[in-house]
């Protein structure tokens, strides 16, 4: 055998050996792949067995790879769906902890980022009770710990935003005194400019900001953030846009604004949406100051208050409506009873007294007193006293003007006044009944109508005119 023939035989043997190893690897991969797809087929009918099948896949791989990563993903989703988070969500959390070990080397960065983000979205949508929220918080914490030392700012931001939103939804920003931390996180999130942000992410950021501003009673900033959140959710096609639109309507009422939130180009298509119709009617009644229509809408649409955030803040809107209704109702009265207000506006007596006390202290009803024994309210109208003072000043100025015109003008002289006075004194009734001084003529009617007719006209004047004449 020649050297060339020997080398050819050696090459063939080596090639055959490598091919046999590849066949063995492929056979192993096929077995794992078959196990994965078999588990997927039975997960609808037998989820417990499917979880066991998915959980066994990582152990079948000699090195961590795609199939183990996929198997753990499916197992976690099924465990969460079945509610396997009773004991501090131990099983789902442990599998998620194992899943996070794959992101460093077993799978690519983009694939792992997308998979984990989808996993967190799935868990968020499936959480509907306190235990699920607690488990979800553990998932977020594990994710942040895992990515703390990596330069993956995008996933860090998304996870932190989800955690911030969870705290807001659970109202833990007030119970755990973490509101300051959440606000700092919100401001930091707005400054991230690593790439073009996804509109859904911006929607979540703005929604968190709107809720924080609303808790601080910063209505204007809250309205701006909720509008931006709605616009971003709408662009992303997220159903959360409906809920945020309700928050926008709520903020408009808290601002006491007369601008209809559905007048903008972005919100106008949703004005007739049945999911938002109750809020549309509510803001319409609010802007018309129709307290009865407002209360009726709330009674007939209990689903409006199903959102804890709306239920917490709608009380402020209701109080504003009732306060305006009380002011409008008592406007013509100086004395009324608490029972009268309660009957007309259909609110309790303690609430009526509370609203009136607030209005008195706020100087909306000055110089008013509440008699708690009789339930009567008395208002001392300062404006009546001021009106009488102004009328007295006006009368005095008219008197001065009258004297100047009749004394110094060319139409009458002192001697003319004396002559007319003498004539009136000799006439029946005399001048004295009018209560006028002899050197003062009541009006130019004496020149136009004659003295006799003027006397008759003045005798026929009303009591107000006579009193006015006496004052002069």
Automatic annotation (TrEMBL):
InterPro entries: 26S_Proteasome/COP9_Components, PCI_dom, WH_DNA-bd_sf. It comes from Ajellomyces capsulatus (strain G186AR / H82 / ATCC MYA-2454 / RMSCC 2432). Residues 1-29 are annotated as: Disordered. Residues 1-28 have a biased composition (Acidic residues). SMART domains: PAM, PINT. Residues 215-384 form the PCI domain. This is COP9 signalosome complex subunit. PROSITE patterns: PCI (PS50250). It holds the Pfam family PCI.
